[in-house]
Amino acid sequence: MASPILPLLPSNLEVIQDPNQVAKLSKDYYHFSPVLTAQLQDKVADVVIRPATEAEVLQVAKACVASKTPLTVRGAGTGNYGQCIPLEGGIILDLSKLNRTKWVKPGLACVEAGAKLAAIDKITREQGWEIRMAPSTYRTATIGGFIGGGSGGIGSITYGQLADRGNLTAVRVVTMEDEPQILELRGDDVQKVNHAYGTNGIITELEIPLGPAYPWAEVIVTFDDFMQAARFGYTLGEADGIIKKLISIHAWPVPSYFAALQEFLPPNQTAALLMIAESSLEPFGELVKAYGGTVTYQKTAEAAKKGAALAEFTWNHTTLHARNVDTNLTYLQTLFPYDTDLKLVEHMYRHFGDEVLMHLEFFRVHGQVCPAALQLVRYTTEARLNEIIRYHETQGAFIANPHTYILEDGGRKEINDTQVAFKGQVDPYGLLNPGKMRGWLERNT
Amino acid sequence: MASPILPLLPSNLEVIQDPNQVAKLSKDYYHFSPVLTAQLQDKVADVVIRPATEAEVLQVAKACVASKTPLTVRGAGTGNYGQCIPLEGGIILDLSKLNRTKWVKPGLACVEAGAKLAAIDKITREQGWEIRMAPSTYRTATIGGFIGGGSGGIGSITYGQLADRGNLTAVRVVTMEDEPQILELRGDDVQKVNHAYGTNGIITELEIPLGPAYPWAEVIVTFDDFMQAARFGYTLGEADGIIKKLISIHAWPVPSYFAALQEFLPPNQTAALLMIAESSLEPFGELVKAYGGTVTYQKTAEAAKKGAALAEFTWNHTTLHARNVDTNLTYLQTLFPYDTDLKLVEHMYRHFGDEVLMHLEFFRVHGQVCPAALQLVRYTTEARLNEIIRYHETQGAFIANPHTYILEDGGRKEINDTQVAFKGQVDPYGLLNPGKMRGWLERNT
Predict the structure, then answer these.
(1) Which of B214, B279, B286 is the best substitution to test chain A (most A C-beta atoms within 10 A)?
(2) Are residues B181 and B320 in the same domain?
(3) Chain B partners of A245 at a C-beta cutoff of 8 Å?
(4) How much helix, strand and coil, in percent to the nearest 5, is found in chain A?
(5) Which listed residue, A276, A277, B214, B428, has the most CB atoms within 10 A of its CB?
(6) Apex A182 CA angle, A177 and A187, nearest 5
(7) Subunit contact B367:A240, Cβ cutoff 8 A
(8) Are B197 and B243 part of one and the same domain?
(9) Strands (DSSP E) along A300-384, which ranges?
């Protein structure tokens, strides 16, 4: 179907109309969720536009407003909740060509939205700095997509989450008003578009804080007992003197899904997948000893450049590997309360047995180390999935539901008036990623 | 008095016998405590020996053992609990000439015990690294003295305390057996001599972990209300996205004692003295706004190289400045429990009024941000001081008593069997810093 926007676009723009390509670029990794798959699998854009500059983004915005064409921004399409699925067709704005790192200074960088996280690090590491936190899709994900649709990841054990003050310094946003313009948001104003799925502005450029680029060793430690491994993870998380970037704990049989790592993952053992600063390996080894763990795998930062990155078996890559073996598996996203005794984690681990397989990720929540979980779920029905979610919630665990494409129904649970108001200001026609922001959909009801 | 050791020493050694110099080098800053002053003011060594190499230290150790001469190690004498006061005369071993930084790699350095903290940083910063934590005597204190007698300080808001696993990598120790030798302690074994006042080995060399050398801005924020300032400090401490090195909160009239900073410290205001990574200043400013603070002073890292360092008004330098104005002032060292409502802090603040002036330092305790305090106390009698201490303890605050020179009676409160056993092994004649380790003194009773 030809889009009414095409005649309005300048000829310099890269436009993709090939149906196969458009279909491919209309997808993300929502297929991790059987619920989302049923809801989203037939959604497709009319056309994909791939601007190379912010000026071109502005041209596209003008054409969309003029033709009242929906516009859905896409980074690398590595999201899992259908964040970039075009529910009402229109255009996909693929920002992968806006990929420059414009400057780096101590602890800070300015990057274009389509820059890949790994590509940014390659540049900033020359000066001793790196991105503070990244999803397991680090190699392919873009910084704009991560800010638009992510929440934290590898590195969050030190720096908390993207929503925390200080983890995003500034953004430039192209608006969709009658006269589209470029706005700069700084300070707390960045929260207007942070984790808003691109529903209220097109992020084109960002200033992001950086952390020190320690040489990170990759380590696997195995334990006979899951709870012992979990306690080890907690203690490591709270060990202020040991520098770490990743604490990922996998109860058996989760490690059985990691084909490339099998020789390091003995059967029936819980595996801790870890990134530890090389300079902390010696005290780290004492902690392993104190908890009776066995180091089965250890690579220096230099050696880790080759072969499978350990991080690519953690966070939601765990789910990816598991689903490569068994497509009936889906997942949860759970935040357990601060409790070094891990009582609720243990309860859920025992309560659900083989139906919900425990996979913990430790990270900081407003200064405290908390266990989060991306449990694998043996999926039967949507009703049962919701029952599992409700059980967690009634017992005091917080579920960031990954089985909804509605912004507020995932982790936030409430309407963010500031983000809705900002959408009213910069996207009065509701053209940006329509159908995702409940606060906007319900504003007149 | 001539020491029996002198004829046993090789002629290459620097030996100080001038009584004025020996008296001066027999002192530290115990005079912060009227209790310690009464107990320690007449203690003096017979002679000071200043070796230049570890080999010379070994020669001195041999001579001390042969002549059964007590040996008390001295760094820069910046301690406050009489750690390096020679209770039984003998020799002071002044390690200030063992001051080389031997190597630096990412996150790690090897230094000699007498190296000054600031001098180490000058070298490591060339590679982007710095010492993780330091006392307010950073410019003059030695690393050996800090490990031997310190516990944490500026930087502890990120890395916790020196006693935490990972904050000391390895030490070399000269022993005082019949045949003195050099031992290397690594891993958890470093705890055998960590914070032991030099009672069980002469630390000659250390491997210490380093942190990233952010450019640190120095900032003063003032508040109308002490509790509001304290809450601001807590929130800043727990703000994982904002990089900081120092959160020091001073209720009025404490700021009135900081002569050099008066123009930035309005009367009757509580002052927060802070070190913030320059790259975090923008989000930090939003936090200040949210708490209604006023920034009265802000220096970039570059500008902060000139003039009074803000850190030199915090931790126990606060007490120093206060005592410069009023020698009746002494201090406490208090650890309050984890409680973001700061109930016990508020109770003590109101309960003691002008008798105990509140000075908070936030730092990490096993992963959690806690408020510590080095309150200024208007001293009347030792009995009243002990009453104040007991009141804190009965209400649930932990006091690391700075009015005792006994190792275990300060912060530890219990005998460390490992350290006592190690003393038995390496100092069988009890010659090292005699009279300080209760566990040794009471071992046969």
Answers:
(1) B279
(2) no
(3) none
(4) 35, 25, 40
(5) A276
(6) 115
(7) yes
(8) no
(9) 329-331, 334-335, 356-357, 359-365, 368-373, 376-378
Task: Check: pTM over 0.90? Answer yes or no.
Answer: yes
Phi, psi of B199 (to 5 degrees): -85, -15
Which of the four pLDDT bands, split at 50, 70 and 90, describes residue A14? very high
- On whether both A178 and A129 belong to a single domain, the answer is yes
Instruction: Starting at the earlier edge strand, list the strands of the sheet with A244-250.
Output: A294-299, A216-223, A270-277, A244-250, A359-365, A368-373, A334-335, A398-399
B108-112 and B129-131: which strand pairing?
Answer: unpaired
Same domain, B119 and B241: no
CATH number at residue A242: 3.40.462.40
Decide if A241 and B108 are in contact by the 8 Å CB cutoff: no
Q: Closest chain B residue to A129 measured between Cα atoms? A: B212
* Cα gap A120→A141, rounded to integer Å: 11
Nearest to A227 by CA among A341, A398, A393: A341
Q: Is residue B7 part of a domain?
A: no
> Can you tell me which residue has the tokens 């020799």?
B91
**Cβ separation of A283 and B160 shorter than 8 Å?**
no
Consecutive 10-residue averages of pLDDT for chain B (445 residues): 81 95 97 96 97 97 97 97 97 98 97 98 97 97 97 98 98 98 98 98 98 98 98 98 98 98 98 98 98 98 93 98 97 97 98 98 98 98 97 97 96 93 98 97 80
Distance from CA of B335 to the nearest CA of A (A): 17
| Cβ B139 vs Cβ B154: under 8 Å | no
B130 interaction partners in chain A (CB closer than 8 Å): none
The answer on B309 and B383 residing in a single domain is yes
Cβ neighbour number for residue B1 with a 10 Å cutoff: 11
Which range of residues forms the domain containing residue B302?
216-399
- Span A209-220, pLDDT tens digits: 999 999 999 999
* Same domain, yes or no: A111 and A222: no
Is residue A408 in a domain?
no
Residues A207 and A220 in one domain: no
Residues A261 and A153 in one domain: no
Overall average pLDDT of the A246-259 stretch = 98
What is this model's ipTM? 0.97
Nearest to B215 among A106, A167, A187 (CB): A106
Which one-letter amino acid corresponds to residue A234?
A: Y
Name the amino acid, one letter, at B369.
Answer: V
